[in-house]
Amino acid sequence: MPQQLGPVSLRRPDDPFPSVPAGDPSRRRARVSGRPAVIALLGLLVFLALALTPGGFTGQAAFGTAAAAVVPVGHDSGRALAGFMIQSTARVTDPAAEVSGPGYPTKGWYRAGPRSTVLAALLAAGVHPDPFHSTNQKLIPAADFTVPWWYRSDFTVDDSRVGRTYLDFSGVTSAADVFVNGRQVSTAREVAGTYTRHELDVTALVRPGTNTVAFRVQPNDPRKHLTVGWLDWLQPPPDRNMGIVRDVVVRRSGPVALRDAHVVTDLDVPSLASADLTVKARLRNDSPDTVTATLSGTAGPAALSRQVTLAPGESRTVVYSPADHPRLRLPSPRVWWPAGMGGQPLYDLDLAVSVDGVTSDTSHTTFGIRDVQAPVNADGARQYRINGRPLLIKGAGWSPDEFLRWDAAYAEHRMRYVRDLGLNTLRLEGHLEPDEFFDLADRYGILTIAGWECCNKWEGEVNPAGSGEKWTAADHAVARASMAAEAARLRDHPAVISFLIGSDAAPNAQIESGYLEALRGADWDLPVIPSAAGRPAPVTGASGMRMTGPYDWVPPGYWYDKREGGATGFNSETSAGPSIPTMDTLRRMLTPAELETLWKRPDAPQYHRSPSATFSTLELYNAALAGRYGPPADLGDYVRKAQLAQYETVRAQFEAYTRNAKDTTAPATGVIYWMLNSGWTSLHWQLIDRYLDQNGSYFGAKKANEPLHVQYGYDNRAVSVVNDRPTAASGLNARVTLFTTDGTARYDRTVTGVDVEARGVTTTSLALPAEVPGLDGTYLARLLLTDATGRELSRNVYWLSTRDDVLDYAKADWYHTPTTSYADLTGLASMPRVALDVTATTTTRSGTSTTTVTLRHPGTTAAPALLTDVDVVSADGRTPALPVHWTDNHVSLWPGESATLVASYRTADADRAPRVRVAGWNARPVTVPSR
To answer: What segment(s) does the record annotate as region Disordered (predicted)?
Structure first.
């Protein structure tokens, strides 16, 4: 009888599914030892909850038996293993031959999904409390993950005598010994690195019926291994993401295997009148006999066919070119464009190889036709051109879930948010997501810049400031294999526009040559960039990017000065740091005591900010908040002021880069906001929080990136119009009105006949005067853009001061520039409360609810309602419907003005009787029914 130790002790989770808002944070954890019936019941309940939770994370499961994948031969032969049973080697003392054999009992093991880190599975099983709440993650013992863990799964075949069987996988973190039916087929020395891909021929070991695959996964240390890690985004997971985070696919084929099918496209630029397709596929004869195989299929509208004779064991790449297949020269191709520039059509590549009329193997993939260039301009900056047209990269840094759990619905919601924000690009610094992510990017038209991580093993040879160890000969091999596998995986995705082979540091000559060799072998035809930090490499040369920060608070005017992080060139990661979530999110993620510390103790380390000592407190941010807006009176006042501060700073960052994109000297060519999201419950570096709620940072970015936009320049006080649409706009009227905080107008001017070209910028003759009688201290500026009929096209409201923020550039460092004197915005505190008239109606169709909210300023006071926030909430007014998409929000209204806002959300995410909650800077809080 197999000898096993008992399972680890279990703790009741506060929130086993972090995609679902946590409940009462005061719930007690119950520590239970052994295996009483209550634990089995808990596991069952967690499993059922996962199964019934919309969009629940894959990779999460409770106790049970992993289902066996059924793998047929021939057409569509690949099957991903359905899931794993996992257990620590500290609790399994049996020999590997027994553990990896069919029928081995896994009582007391944990069920994991097909892609799961160890800790993700334990969280799903309820072993630990919600790690995203408070400091719960500290309770997870890291010692549990210093030994290997077993991953077991079964698959079945009907007849092992027919065809050949292969294991095809990547995503092992950090390395693994691999076994099939009790026999070792590969070692951890051979299967190492998250991004390496492996295909193991296990035909001789497979038998009819049930077969077992077992991985003995080694612990991960990103300082020592070319895997994944976290630097300063979040508190790193105690298991360091050890596990298997991509599908393990069992493939069965006939004598000839079909691999590496892809299309190389060559679009005629700038005409876009034609495109040449070159189709490539590798055939491998795994039989002992010489065979004649027929490779046939379609690439878009072109039919393909060719006979190939292969000797035993021979592998050959078959190439179809326009020279021998004229239909591969497409007239008027359907060109793929980024969102906002055109459509996102995709073509299919379907191939099959047959021997003696019997299908041996098949392949299906999609591809897009587009051209990407990114030369370095005269100022030394990367200037991307898509299909011959220059494009300002407006992006943000994407983070996966901290435990690398993949949730397709959750990812799609974030992708929709990216489009809603008016962004066109996502940067992935390592943590390269599964194929579905890039499929989403293709569909949504969101460009992606992939690359390796900074500061750990990936830069161990070249970054003395990082923590990574020096490379061995084996590391060089893993790096080349990783590059080859990721290039082959990403090359057909039109959304992918380049690869950063370095982050904070560029590779040396040996590493760079290895990467470039792998990229050439994969037919990579996209820009290769040596680093994100402005550091050149021996072959690829200048990076054309810079990483000058900031990463912590700076005032909005900072972004307009063309030095440090100001709006010039291509800034690969930058933002004003902290992003305080909404009160709804804060109460989910922090205890009452932690909420008090948030606003009362600026020098206190914040667990949910960063493990980095540089970013551990909110000292700079809180000092600016108090210095500009006045000291917070309580938590609500602190959060209210934070939303204004984040809105104005994030808006200014994007506005500065979009305005300066058309400058004749040192233009802005790209900016990556650091970050889109942080992967857990965070207090900084995010436009979108963990629960998909939207705060001032979100709506500041959304306002700045609206397609036709009127804006104010903090540097020259001028009003500009930015047109990001594909058509020109003419005959526009731009108006600016300056008000005291009580609503008294002190200045009003309009310019007419404003024209702005497609994807252009026009700075008008309208500039705010340096001094206006009656304005002292804090004042408001309302900018309106209308067409010739007076229809409002864009509205933008600023809160300004007659006293400027003063920056000390002489003392600037890599993460911020000190502010020696703050603008005076304290006058906002005296603005009268405004009781808005609010009406709301809700309709539901096909699982989507639409709530239309009308806000009207009744004119009971002359003061405007500033930055009014609207939420659709549950009947008790406490829980917002999330995710949600608003046509507009955080709006400002003057007496007599009204605004209609429309929210759309999944009906399942809302109460049957939703209500609308209105708050904001000085709007009197009210919650009304939606009828």
So the answer is: 1-29
